[in-house]
Amino acid sequence: MSGPEIVTTVAALRQRVSAWRAEGSRVGLVPTMGALHEGHLSLVHETGTRCDRTIVSIFVNPAQFAPHEDFERYPRVLNADIARLGASAELVFTPSVVEMYPDGFATRLEVAGPALGLETDFRPHFFAGVATVVAKLLLAAQPDIAMFGEKDYQQLLVVRRLARDLALPVEILGGEIVRETDGLAMSSRNAYLDAHEREIAGRLNRVLKDVAARFRAGESPDAAEASGAKALAAAGFDSVDYVAVRDAETLASAASLSASVRVLAAARVGKTRLIDNMAA
Predict the structure, then answer these.
(1) Domain holding 84: CATH number?
(2) How many domains is the chain partitioned into structurally?
(3) Is the entire prediction scored with pTM above 0.90?
(4) Is 217 helix (H, G, I), strand (E, B) or coil?
(5) Residues that are catalytic
(6) Gap between the Cα atoms of 226 and 230, Å rounded
(7) DSSP code of 176?
(8) Residue 175 host element (H or E)
């Protein structure tokens, strides 16, 4: 097999999945917006170890971008993405915007719970757009599992909540963050960074490690968060949206180490907004 089959319509996707089901195959889905990197490929590989057939969706979803955000300049390199996937996926689903949001489309899903706060405070449109497109992808592909990267940790929890609340018959799994040698979490948006910005961006992971260490040493969440925000500013970030020490399951404020804890941050360098997180 030299490369994956490519389909562009929900009907064609369902036809292929139906044939696989008839063979008794277990099916996995990796939703992406393309511009694939090693982080995406690790999700595809992990899905392949759990399933007989792997689908990768590539769709830059306009519903999760605000008018002032980077929808138009978000990298679109479909041919390169297909080449990178090689034989690691059986099928790539590349729908058009009209296929996903046909004329008259009027439905938008709202999720509370883990969607409240953090990203929502700065991108209030975001999770409704994510939830809507993910629900459509899950209903179209009807996979046994769907794999999402932990770099977008709040998004992962939102998708899990969505699947539970709608009783969707799919297991939502998280894949570990893949990092560059200096610790920067791999992201398609890293391509926006110039050399100076890239050097600054590499410091984000080190600041998160320090925040986690401060919390583990007994510092209060508020104090650890304030130290982290100050450290990011000193490291050269132009603005800091948040540094947060949260319960890893609910994203409620963390009071102690009695529960699993996650440290999350979002900050800007130049025109690029970076997010990252790690267990504390």
Answers:
(1) 3.40.50.620
(2) 2
(3) yes
(4) coil
(5) 40
(6) 6
(7) P
(8) strand 171-175
Rounded to the nearest angstrom, the gap between the alpha carbon of residue 38 and the centroid of all alpha carbons in its chain is 14
H/E segment holding residue 14? helix 10-22
Q: Which amino acid is at 236?
A: G
Cα 194 to Cα 65, 198, 200: the distances in Å are: 23, 6, 10
Q: Write out pLDDT tens, residues 116-158.
A: 999 999 999 999 999 999 999 999 999 999 999 999 999 999 9
- Chain position carrying tokens 């040698």: 181
Q: Which domain holds residue 139?
A: 5-175
Residue that the structure tokens 């080190």 belong to: 206
Question: How many Cα atoms are found within 13 Å in the side-chain-facing hemisphere of 249?
Answer: 4
In a 13 Å sphere around the CA of 154, the CA atoms on its Cβ side amount to 27
Listed residue (208, 197, 189) closest to 236, CA to CA: 197
Q: How far is it, in rounded angstroms, from Cα 76 to Cα 53?
A: 25
**Which DSSP letter does residue 185 get?**
B
